[in-house]
Design goal:
- The chain contains eight helices and eight strands; from the N terminus they run H-E-H-H-E-E-E-E-H-E-E-E-H-H-H-H.
- By secondary structure, the chain is an alpha+beta fold.
- Strands 1, 2, 3, 4, 5, 6, 7 and 8 form an eight-stranded antiparallel beta sheet that branches.
- A hairpin with a 6-residue loop joins strand 6 and strand 7.
- Helix 2 (about 15-25) runs parallel beside helix 5 (about 130-140) and helix 7 (about 175-185) crosses helix 8.
- The longest helix has 16 residues, at about 195-210.
Amino acid sequence: MRRDHSQLQFLTMNQALENLRITTKLSMDAEDLLMHCANGNCTAYLRLEGVRGQTQVSGEPGDLPEVVYDAGPQEVRSVHAVRRARPGVPVTITMVGPVFEDDDSFEEVTKVWDAAVDMGLAEIIFKPADVTALSDKVLGVSPKSYNLDTREKASAGAIIAALASMPAFDIRQPWGVAEAIITAGELLGIEMPQDATIAKFMKLAVKAMDG
């Protein structure tokens, strides 16, 4: 990857494709990259501005949708909706990321939410590390080992401790089990990470299982 690009928090679609084409020697286009994201080989994010939506609900009694507003880059969970979208025609997209709730607190919280998004006014972005990992996967390069930082070690330890007290579940549904893991940890008196962090570790586990 270009050295300057590796220092960015996010890459644009054009920057991501530039690096993929250089490293893989393939003429990948935006459709190819989004298809990889739809198949779990990469993660797409959206940079929005002033988008309003509603949180998803579990179906439990009293769990009602909340009005929220985007507060930063959002991980796309419905990539196919993004692929089919056309500028000027809003489509419903499911996302997870930092949002502001419809109150005066201005406190960022992480939520899974749906919003009607005009893709002509949104920007698809990617993390440099995800683009590098996709390049390695396309080229058949084995992933390198890496060291967790202090915060990641604490999160991993809390998740593992909570899992040890739980019955078996399907880690291929990371968002579906995140709340259960948080509940199990809290019952053990463990300070748990946010659901987005738990989902990230579940996805890493799935990647390890699939090789």
